[in-house]
Amino acid sequence: MRISLSACLIIFCCSHCKPVKRYEGKNPLLFDASLSKDISTKPNTRFILTMSDPLVPGANNIYIPTMEMAWQQLDILLHHNIRLTNKTAAAIKALAYSPLIIPDNIPGSEVEASAENGEVNVKATMYAELPFKHSFDTIQGSFGNKKVKYFGITYSYEYRDYIDILSYKDEKHFIVSITPQDTSKEILFCMGYNQFHDFNKLYKSVNIDIADAKKKESWRTSFMENDGFSAPKINFDLTQQLSSVQGQQFRAGKETYTITNASLRNAFLLTEKGATVFNEADMMAALDSIPVKRMIFDSPYTIILRKKTSPQPFAMMTIADTELMTLSANTDPF
């Protein structure tokens, strides 16, 4: 069987990946934001913020969970007081209701946050390099009616240990796994799953088919002589201002915040040598108005005199009546 890929791509990572604190020594092009193009230059590509968001049929749908990580950090900064109402935008609800993203499950993940003068800023990033143990061949091919570059291989003994066929129904429905040099990770190439409404349902179906394949004939999941694998090379670096999030309001306690900035950058490179992925999510929220502090003691109050370093006050009083106060009509201070 010959396996030619033109479907969905899933990258799995281990649960113990340590965050990459700085990216020195890595591909510098990935960290130069000026090189990133606006997503509007790719009209058939969409960024998906959560796995429950609807996929766009016939488009490239890209999901990486950093915007969810940014929202989680925003919630932490606001002491988990974010409240949703019927008026809350759908994109905000999707972020708020998405399952908890555990940073240790996301390779090279890092979250930065700050809060000052009624403004909250959060940034979540992730970076992963997945070089293949052996480079694949570069192959000329077509996708639809366009010529594109593929990478791939016919059966070779040296590739047998890191190319796994996890499911094979026919030439239009199969799952191939490639294990990179870091064997705690894998890249799944999945054909025949473009009918699903969201990534949650798609991912569930992939796992069901993998489990079912283990019960079937072994030839279906063995990479054998005369078998072949090929998939298109992919290369993009795109940024989007998220209009579905930017400008939206939410409540935190008694205060109303407006999201003044929400942007997402996705960069991905897949060649015969391996895969590299970089993602950056930025979010800024500001109080609609910082309340003016009017501190006027015009109702019963308390006065305490004490040494700052002593737990014992040397005078306390409650003031509830004007008879001890200096009245406006009396100019005598005593």
How would you portray this structure in words?
- This protein has 334 residues and is mostly beta strands.
- It has one domain.
- The protein is 10% helix and 41% strand.
List its traits:
eight-stranded mixed β-sheet; 20 strands; four-stranded mixed β-sheet; 334 residues; elongated; single chain; mainly beta; 3 helices
Proportion of beta-strand residues: 35-45%
- The radius of gyration over CA amounts to 28 Å
The beta-strand count equals: 20
Number of domains: 1
Order of helices and strands: EEEEEHEHEEEEEEEHEEEEEEE
List the helices and strands and how they pair.
Elements: E1 2-4, E2 8-12, E3 37-38, E4 45-48, E5 60-63, H1 66-77, E6 82-83, H2 90-97, E7 110-116, E8 119-131, E9 137-143, E10 146-154, E11 163-170, E12 173-178, E13 186-191, H3 199-213, E14 228-232, E15 234-241, E16 249-252, E17 255-271, E18 274-287, E19 301-306, E20 313-319
Compact overview of the structure:
By secondary structure, the protein is mainly beta.
